[in-house]
Amino acid sequence: MNYKIFTEPFGNLISSKAREIIAEINAQPDEYFNSIPIVEFSKYLESKYSLDDFPSFIWEEIEMEIGETEVYGRDFPPTFDISNPNEKFKRKLVEYNIPINGNVGLLRFSPTNRYSTNGMYGTLEIRNNALNVQFIDIYNEPEKIDSDFDRTKNAIVGKLNVVKGEYDNFHKELPKFIDTEIKKRIQKINHTNDYKSKFKYPVKKKDVPTAFESPRIVKKRKISPKPVGAGNTVTNQKFITDEDYMHILGLLQDCGNNWEHHPELYKDKGEEALRDQLIFVLAPNIEGVVAGEAYNKKGKTDISIKHESTNLFIGECKIWKGPKGFVETIDQILGYLTWRDSKAAIMMFVPNQEISVVRKATEESAKGHPNFVRVLDVINKGWTNYRFHIENDPGTYITLAVQLYHLPEL
After folding, report:
1. DSSP bridge pairs for 315
2. Helix axes 323-336, 355-368, angle to 10 degrees
3. Residue 71 pairs with which residues in a beta bridge?
4. Which among 329, 322, 349, 346 has a CA at the least distance from the CA of 265?
5. Rounded to a whole number, what is the largest CA-CA distance in the chain?
6. 335-392, pLDDT tens digit by residue?
7. Mind spelling out the 3-state secondary structure of the chain?
8. Which residues contact 21 (CB under 8 A, 6 or more apart)?
9. Chain centroid offset of residue 381 CA
10. pLDDT number for residue 297
11. In this structure, are residues 321 and 328 in contact, taking their beta carbons and an 8 Å threshold?
12. Residue 241 CB-density burial (10 A; 0-12 exposed, 13-18 middle, 19+ buried)
């Protein structure tokens, strides 16, 4: 999908979101607000109406294309003496392509109070998750084109920073706005109930469900590996951000929790079938999930995200068969990941009745591994994030999450 950038004030998007939130709150039956925790409904609305990742340009990965185009004489500046305005002249067409991370759709919004596009030169268009900036070199002066591009870049960065401020403020104010609107609705319900209570005859009840459930939103998320390095350093190495990593792990954990509450989903299933269920959960919710080489019947990793030929995320699914097998899985992962900031996960299916014994064994085995560095986070009793270094390189680290799913009927 191709479209121009900075064509609509960001305030229009905020107003639209506000109207949608109010409409959804008002669309719920009165009984809804007595049947579920209001906090859950509020969190649901916050998740549903929050905006996707704010876009950012990867300026260090600019690629140029130089071709030719034809320009009518009438389109030349007045300084050119063109006798025939319908005559066509060949000129160089210079294009800059800048990759974009995040939600590119947000780039169509400009600062609400600074709607002008002054300072930007050339033709700007979003194409396939990249910004395309075109210049026609009328004067045959490459230095001028480069200068115009730099000024355009600075103008874009400036405007984007202002929009980012509005974006951040929207998310800061969103919970308060939702809570206020829910309170308004509840207040209205209370006034109505108070009015009804003043009649001596019972008011006919509406035919509504006896139970309500707070819906849950899992937004599809694009995993966009970021370049390793800082400043103007150009590098081909990539890593997955901690935020994306935790989002992946959260989806996996939700699937494991679902199994634990509904044994019929995993009963009589093997390791491969359970792995496939995890992939089916990830695939519709994350852009960039790659079913690994084992899933493609090449006999290696279960779930992976790659940049070119390098693994950035590895997920290994195993049935717990003791500490020895667990350590072998860690060794296997350390063999797959080679770059700094690579990330991995072990999803351990535990058929044992006493999950606490297995939990203690995984902790002791992880800490006893020769490549163990430290514990990063204990998210809950069945999920711990560790730091390891790769084989023969104590200065290159990976992050490894270990999640235990208690499946005693496996």
Report:
1. 303, 345
2. 50
3. 89
4. 349
5. 93
6. 877 766 688 999 999 998 888 999 999 999 999 999 999 999 899 989 999 999 988 7
7. CCECCCCEEHHHHHHHHHHHHHHHHHHCCCCHHHHCCHHHHHHHHHHHHCCCCCCEECHHHCEEEEEEEEEEHHHCCCCCCCCCCCCEEEEEEEEEEEEEECCHHHHHEECCCCCCCCCCCCEEEEECCEEEEEEEECCCCHHHHHHHHHHHHHHHHHHHHHHHHHHHHHHHHHHHHHHHHHHHHHHHHHHHHHHHHCCCCCCCCCCCCCCCCCCCCCCCEECCCEECCCCCCCCCCEECCHHHHHHHHHHHHHHHHHHHHCHHHCCCCCHHHHHHHHHHHHCCCEECCEECCCCCCCCCCCEEEEECCEEEEEEEEEECCCHHHHHHHHHHHHHHCCCCCEEEEEEEEECCCCHHHHHHHHHHHHHHCCCEEEEEEEEECCEEEEEEEECCEEEEEEEEEEEEEECCCC
8. 45, 49, 177, 178, 181
9. 26
10. 33
11. no
12. middle
- CA atoms of 313 and 224, how far apart (whole Å): 12
DSSP-derived pairing of the beta strands 8-9 and 109-110: parallel
Q: Give residue 193's pLDDT.
A: 87
Q: What is the pTM of this model?
A: 0.56
Q: What is the mean pLDDT of residues 26-47?
A: 82
- Dist. CA 114–CA 228, nearest whole Å: 34
Q: How confident is the model at residue 95 (pLDDT cuts 50, 70, 90)?
A: very high
Q: Rounded CA gap, 375 and 401, in Å? A: 10
CA-to-CA distance for 368 and 44, rounded, in angstroms? 41
Q: Contact at 8 Å (CB) between 250 and 380?
A: no
Work out the number of other CB atoms within 10 angstroms of the CB of residue 61.
14
